[in-house]
Every structure is written in structure tokens, then in C-alpha cells.
Automatic annotation (TrEMBL):
InterPro entries: ADH-like_C, ADH-like_N, ADH_Zn_CS, ER, GroES-like_sf, L-Threonine_3-DHase, NAD(P)-bd_dom_sf, Zn_alcohol_dh. Its cofactor is Zn(2+). Pfam families: ADH_N, ADH_zinc_N. Catalyzes the NAD(+)-dependent oxidation of L-threonine to 2-amino-3-ketobutyrate. This is L-threonine 3-dehydrogenase. Its EC number is 1.1.1.103. The active site is at T40 (charge relay system), H43 (charge relay system). It catalyses: 2-deoxy-scyllo-inosamine + NADP(+) = 3-amino-2,3-dideoxy-scyllo-inosose + NADPH + H(+); L-threonine + NAD(+) = (2S)-2-amino-3-oxobutanoate + NADH + H(+); 2-deoxy-scyllo-inosamine + NAD(+) = 3-amino-2,3-dideoxy-scyllo-inosose + NADH + H(+).
Length: 342
């Protein structure tokens, strides 16, 4: 089968012929239809410091996908051949304290699809049936392909109640944009988002945010004044991993405000912890999705009319992966999709 692989410990990816994956008694084999390009995939392609530490070559990359089940192991009972599915890319041990307590998203032994084992940028991918989400309600293929990052957005956005609240999102990348759409749909009063890309801010305006603020030209305090907020933002969603964004967010939260932090910083940075304490702020780290409560919430949100179409800005056949990755790495658009049927 054709697959995108990180063949050697160097920059770049290669489209190559590799063996079709085999499945065990509890696994399913999925014919991949569409995949989404994630920031993780960009790191692997660039072969940066993180990738050099995390990746062992050769490796089939990719973890955002939708496809059809074509074979199941003998012990699989809840997934059938012909089911349309997406995959939870965090494979957990099932034996640690958190797994046994039903908190699988907190497993300390998590292995990432397309990071710690062969992934989904291929014509076929194998997964344990416990990591498969069956789409019981019809969903657009492009949207189904990005259920993994959509889950990150939903997990972050719904960490705290949003109805009637003023929400600040720092970082208008694809997940920040999806989180903005979720916050609007969930009943936030104001949704403000910051970024340094005018193209991404324009996407945020299409989604319907109250304010899209260019962080090169204005501060969050400026945004507060423009929205007429007197006491600060109630909920903050930090999506950028940028030190200055986190610091500015903390400085503009109301007393008792709550921050969910998904953006992953490149290195340690200082935070005004005195302000966190004296303003009685809550800061919660987010990694991945709750299995599978977040997935249920995603499906319900889409059934309820949540529109993610503006977030997808690039579509390519898998053979044009170089152009697709260049588009995704530009920092100017939303999600980029690879079509594995083209």
C-alpha cells in the first residue's frame, strides 16, 4: 500500500510502498478515505528537536483520519465491516490506575498513533477496536477526518461553563478556530480571539467571533475596552503556546476566572503567579480528548448545527502531499485535508 513515511532521521517525508498492516484479535483494519495534517506532523516533517526525541524511524506518520472498516479481529463485537469510523489516536495501557478508573485520557503510558506506532497517512491503518469511533450519524468526510483536533477544541472549550460568559481565545490556529465556533454554539456572550495572522483572524470573523484582534497592533486590554468589559474575561482558552499570550491572558481575567491551556510551549517561561493567586484564577492543562465523552459531545454538537466548514481551507490528493504540507505550515490558513481516494 502507499503511505507517507518518515524513512530516515532527517527532514522531509516520502511516499512509499509499505506492507499493509496486520490486525490482531481485538483490532480493526480501516481503509483510509481522508486525513488531516496536524502540527505534530509538521514537526515530524521538519525533524525539529521534539521530533528527534520522540520519533523512531522508519514510521508511517499521521493520526487524523476517517475511513471504512474492511476487516475485524475475531474478538471484535462492537465494530462491523462497512462502518465509517474515525480513530482516537491515544492508545492507552488499560492497566494503570487512571485507565482502570475510566480516566483513560490520563493514562501515563499513552502511545500516539503516527508518533509511537505506524499511523494513518496510508491507504490502510490498523487500530484496536477500543480506539475506534463509529459515526452513527452521517457526517461530512472532511469534518470526520478532523475529529481528533476537533476533540481537542471541544475538550478545551467545554472545560468550564460557557453560557453567558465572556471568552478569550489566544491563538487562531485550526483548533483555536474550532474552539471559537464551539464557544459561540455553547452560548458564550462574547468570544474574542487573538492572533498575528490576518488571514486566520478573517477566518475567525467568518465563524462569527465578537472580536478578532491582531496581537501585533493591539493588546487584550484594548479588546476588553472595545467589547465594553469592565472586569475582564470569565474564561480563557490558551491555544498558542506563546509566553506573551499566556501572560496577557492572565492579566486580563476577571477575579475567579478560569483558564484552559492546550497550547504547548516550546520551553519554560515565567508567569505572574502572584496575580494567579490574588485573582484566584484556575489554570487547567488539556491534552487530547476524554475517551469517549468528548467524542460524544462532538457528534452532538454537529447534530445540533455546529458548522466547522470555514475551518477547512485546503484540500489535496495524497500524491500532492508536499504542497499540502507547505500550505499547512504557512500559518495562514485552517485545516488541510489529504484525500486518499484521489
Amino acid at each position: 500500500m502507499k503511505a507517507l513515511i518518515k524513512e530516515k532521521p532527517e527532514q522531509g517525508l516520502r511516499l512509499a510502498d509499505v506492507p499493509e498492516p496486520s490486525i490482531g484479535p481485538g483490532d480493526v483494519l480501516i481503509k483510509v478515505l481522508r486525513t488531516g495534517i496536524c502540527g505534530t506532523d509538521l514537526h515530524i516533517r521538519a525533524w525539529d528537536g521534539w521530533a528527534q526525541q520522540a520519533i523512531r524511524t522508519p514510521l508511517v506518520v499521521g493520526h487524523e483520519f476517517v475511513g471504512d472498516v474492511v476487516a475485524i479481529g475475531r474478538d471484535v463485537v462492537d465494530v462491523a465491516v462497512g462502518d465509517r469510523v474515525s480513530g482516537e489516536g491515544h492508545l492507552v495501557c488499560g492497566k494503570c490506575r487512571n485507565c482502570q478508573a475510566g480516566r483513560r485520557h490520563l493514562c501515563r503510558a499513552t502511545v500516539g498513533l503516527g508518533v509511537g506506532r505506524d499511523g494513518a497517512f496510508a491507504e490502510y491503518v490498523a487500530l484496536p477496536s477500543a480506539n475506534v469511533w463509529v459515526h452513527r450519524v452521517p457526517v461530512d468526510l472532511d469534518i470526520a477526518a478532523i475529529f481528533d483536533p476537533f476533540g481537542n477544541a471541544v475538550h478545551t472549550a467545554l472545560s468550564f461553563p460557557l453560557v453567558g460568559e465572556d471568552v478569550l481565545i489566544t491563538g487562531a490556529g485550526p483548533i483555536g478556530l474550532m474552539a471559537a465556533a464551539v464557544a459561540r454554539h455553547a452560548g458564550a456572550r462574547h468570544v474574542a480571539i487573538t492572533d498575528v495572522s490576518e488571514e486566520r483572524l478573517e477566518l475567525a470573523r467568518k465563524i462569527g467571533v465578537s472580536l478578532a484582534l491582531d496581537a501585533k497592533d493591539a493588546t487584550i486590554a484594548d479588546g476588553q475596552r472595545e467589547l465594553g468589559l469592565r472586569e475582564g474575561f470569565d474564561v480563557g482558552l490558551e491555544m498558542s503556546g506563546r509566553p506573551e499570550a499566556m501572560r496577557d491572558m492572565i492579566a486580563n481575567m476577571t477575579h475567579g476566572g478560569r483558564i484552559a491551556m492546550l497550547g504547548l510551549p516550546a520551553q519554560e517561561f515565567a508567569v505572574d503567579w502572584a496575580r494567579v493567586v490574588t485573582s484566584m484564577l484556575t489554570v487547567k492543562g488539556i491534552y487530547g480528548r476524554e475517551m469517549f465523552e468528548t467524542w460524544y459531545a462532538m457528534s452532538v454538537l454537529l447534530e445540533g448545527g455546529l458548522d466547522l466548514a470555514p475551518v477547512i481551507t485546503g484540500r489535496y490528493g495524497y500524491r500532492d502531499f508536499e504542497a499540502a504540507f507547505t500550505d499547512a505550515a504557512s500559518g495562514k490558513g485552517g485545516k488541510v485535508i489529504l484525500d486518499w481516494t484521489a
